[in-house]
Design a protein that fits this description.
- It contains 15 helices and 13 strands.
- It has helices at residues 4-11, 26-35, 47-54, 65-73, 109-118, 138-148, 188-199, 211-241, 246-253, 278-287, 293-303, 305-319, 347-357, 389-394, 409-415, and strands at 16-20, 39-43, 77-80, 91-94, 126-130, 158-162, 181-185, 205-207, 328-332, 361-365, 397-400, 419-421, 436-438.
- Strands 3-2-1-4-5-6-7-8 form an 8-stranded mixed sheet, with helices on both faces.
- Helix 7 (188-199) links the parallel strand 7 (181-185) and strand 8.
- Helix 12 (305-319) crosses helix 13.
- It starts with a helix and ends with a strand.
- The structure holds nicotinamide-adenine-dinucleotide.
Length: 439
Amino acid sequence: MDPHPLIERIRKREAVIGVIGLGYVGLPLVTEFAKAGFKVLGFDIDQGKTDALNRGESYIHHIPSANIRSILDKNLLEATTDFSRAREADALLICVPTPLTAHQEPDLSYIKSTGLSIAPHIRPGQLIVLESTTYPGTTEEILRPVLESGGAVCGKDFLLAYSPEREDPGNATFSTGKIPKVVGGCDANALDAADALYSEIVVSTVRVSSARTAEAVKLLENIFRSVNIALVNELKLIYTKMDIDVWEVIEAAATKPFGYMPFYPGPGLGGHCIPIDPFYLSWKAREYGIAARFIELAGEVNTAMPEYVVSCLMNALNERSKALKGARVLVLGVAYKADVDDTRESPGLTLIEIMQSRGATVDYNDPFVPQLVASRRFDLKLKSVDLTPTSLAEYDCVLIATAHTAYDYDFIVEHAQLVLDTRNATKNVTQHRDRIHKA
Ligand SMILES: NC(=O)c1ccc[n+]([C@@H]2O[C@H](COP(=O)([O-])OP(=O)(O)OC[C@H]3O[C@@H](n4cnc5c(N)ncnc54)[C@H](O)[C@@H]3O)[C@@H](O)[C@H]2O)c1
């Protein structure tokens, strides 16, 4: 098959881009392609999302509704739940979830069901790119046969590639277009087409030899973070026992201009990527008879952090002759990281659950999360409480789980009885330091 007609259409920005899965990854891609002048068709099974977009409303905090309205005004966006319209797109980019099952194994059901919904509608010459994070081999071994189940043949009727998403929600310096994009094709034509496509919207592309290699790149990046975070979490336990402030150590080490990169301890891992993706590889490695010991160990250390934080809380309360059972605790920040509205796998939620199970009464405040909605793992039914001098003073402890920049830490420490700080957020607070405990 000659891919040039598609590449030509891409260069002239005549190609229609279909983005499947309009979440934290898919929606920024939609806006980036539309900004570059491409017509974009957004697909999702959640009609609430497609309706919102068609009304010009964003449901992701760091993507302003004005951006959606501006591309709607230019007729560059339409969102739909009708997958038969997949045939209208020249390129289809799949950005659906890749979580773990209850047994901590890869859950590829979203990728498979997406493949099944578009397979009957594949039209000759289309490029299909998987963007979801997954283990090496998924594009070729799992997605390809599902796509071919409709009769179209990969490499002949359609091109298939993998290009991992490196989105960092809320990162003002590196928005989608500023992050180099790795691309790997199932054959040379697919690689060329995917390369041509992303070259239109990102600062640079990085071509690798296969889809499997591109899948492996993404996992390396996330495993690197998971292992290094586990390392500093472990060092935190050791240095705390030695009465050395791990945060001070990290800041000083970070002045080394080469061979070191700072990672920071925390109350546990959160988000859709770091707590999950490494286990995609450890699962796949078992097929090759290899135990991924680093990955498993990092997982163990990081997963133990919420319990460690709760033990620090119990000690701090104990010093005030109080028990966790019956205590009132206010958790600050239930988003998994600062200044985003994403609560997936958030350690703040795990902390709430553990403290409730030990008999504490727990509330939370988060300027980005007005209320907690039920998810795969949590159903906490809480609403964000206001931060006032009176409300802060009512709690036996205020636990900083996520250090949003909007928080006024002087104000918080001034009015709280006790503050347990898991993020070193109170480092510049000068008054009432005896109220602050680190965890
Ligand atoms: N969030 C991040 O920062 C980030 C960064 C890099 C990579 N990733 C990876 O990108 C992928 C998507 O993550 P996300 O954070 O955007 O997830 P998300 O949950 O925010 O969005 C996924 C969207 O897919 C939709 N969806 C589910 N099944 C579908 C189907 N069969 N057909 C069409 N739409 C469907 C959901 O309704 C949702 O809107 C995952 O593999 C994730 O690991 C995420």
